[in-house]
Amino acid sequence: MKKTIYLATLSLMSIGIFTSAIKYSSAYADAINGTSATSDPQQNNNNANEDNNENEENNQYNYEVTSSRDHYMMKVLNGTSYLWDNPYKPGVKYLGNTNKINGLTVQLNQKAVSQSETYYQISRKGKNYGWINAKALGNISTYVLPYTYSSQLYPTLAPNACEAISLKMALSVKGSADNLSTKTFIDNMPRSSNIHKGFRGNPYKHNPTNVSWTILPAPLTKYGKQYNSNTANISGYHKDQIIKEIKRGNAVAFAGSRNMRGKATGHMLTIVGYRYGQFLVADPYKYAGDGNKIFWVSTSRFQQVYDQYNRYAVVVR
Fold first, then answer.
1. Residue spans per domain, the chain
2. pLDDT tens digits for 64-115?
3. HSE (CB half, 13 Å, CA atoms) of 53?
4. pLDDT at 256 exceeding the cut of 50
5. Burial environment of residue 151 by CB neighbours within 10 A (0 to 12, 13 to 18, 19 or more)
6. What sequence ranges are listed for the domain GW (predicted)?
7. CA atoms of 256 and 308, how far apart (whole Å)
8. Alpha carbon of residue 174 to chain centroid
9. CATH of domain 64-140
C-alpha cells in the first residue's frame, strides 16, 4: 500500500514538473517572438492597448514624401503657424513662425502625408522656409509671382537686350541672378554671328540693318541654366500649358510685341502672373518714368500674338 502511494506521488510530481517545463518553454518562445506568456487576460489587454497606441503614434509620423512641384501655388493664411526642418514629429528642428510671410504666395516643393497629417515644404523667391502644416495654407485665384522688374532702357540703355532682360526677370522669381546688374547680365550673354549659338548684333544699339539682332530660345535657355539649372526651353507650348507653369510659380519669357499690341515683332516680355482669362505681363522696354510696365492682357490676345512668332518661350522652374 505504501509503495503504491509512493509511486502515485512520484507520478503526480513528474506531471507537475512536465507541466512547468511546458509553461517555461512557452514563455521563452513568446518572449523571443515579442509576445507575453502571462495568463492574466486583463494584463494581455493592457499590453495590446499599449502596442496599439504605439503603432498609432508611429503611423502618425510615418510620412510618405513626394514631389509637389506640379501643385499650384498657395497662400500662407493669417495667424501664427510653425515652420520645421522636416515634416513634424517629436525631435524635428523648429525654424520659426509664419508671421513675416502671412498672406504671401508660396511655391510647394515637396509633400509629406501620414495617417493623420499633411505637410508641405514651401519656398518663395528661391528661399526655402521649411515644412508647414497644410492647414495653414489656402487656395488662390489670382497668381502674382514674386518677380523683380528690370528694364532694358534704364539704368543701362540697351534697346536690343529684351531677350536677356526678360530672362533676368523670369530668373528673379526664383531669386536667381538678382544680385547682378542689368549690364553685367547682358555682357555675360553668349555672343555669336549664329543666332542658334548666341546673340547676334549689339544689344546696346538700335539695329540699322535688315538682319535680326537676337538670340534663339535654345542658346538663351543654355545661358539661363548658368544661374538656375531648372531653366527650360518650352517653345511650342500652348497658353493652357503656360497657365499651368504660372500657377506652379514659374515665370515665362516669350516672344511677342511691345505692350502686346499690333503684330508680333519678336520683342520678348515676361509673364509674371495669371488670373482667369488674363496673363500679367512685364515689358522690359520701358523708361523709368513710363507707366504700364506691368499690365494684364487677355490669354486669347496673348495666344494670337504668340502664335505669330513661332511660339518662342523659356521657363524658369
1. 64-140, 162-316
2. 999 999 999 999 999 999 999 999 999 999 999 999 999 999 999 999 999 9
3. 6
4. yes
5. buried
6. 55-142
7. 8
8. 11
9. 2.30.30.170
Instruction: Write the CB contacts of 217 (distance below 8 Å, at least 6 apart in sequence).
Output: 233, 235, 312, 313, 314
pLDDT of 134 > 80? The answer is yes
273-289 pLDDT, tens digit per residue, is: 999 999 999 999 999 99
Helix, strand, coil distribution of the chain in percent, nearest 5: 30, 25, 45
**Alpha-carbon gap, residue 236 to 221, rounded angstroms:** 14
Placement of cell 504660372 in the chain: 246
H/E element holding 194?
none
> What sign for the dihedral angle of Cα 193, 181, 247, 71?
positive
- For residue 170, what is its C-alpha cell? 523670369
Kindly report whether the global pTM for this prediction surpasses the value 0.90.
no
Q: 149-205 pLDDT, tens per residue?
A: 999 999 999 999 999 999 999 999 999 999 999 999 999 999 999 999 999 999 999
- Cell numbers representing residue 153 in the block: 532702357
DSSP 8-state assignment for residue 290: -
Q: CATH classification of 162-316, choosing from 3.90.70.10, 3.30.300.30, 3.30.465.10, 3.30.413.10?
A: 3.90.70.10
Residue 138, strand partner residues:
75
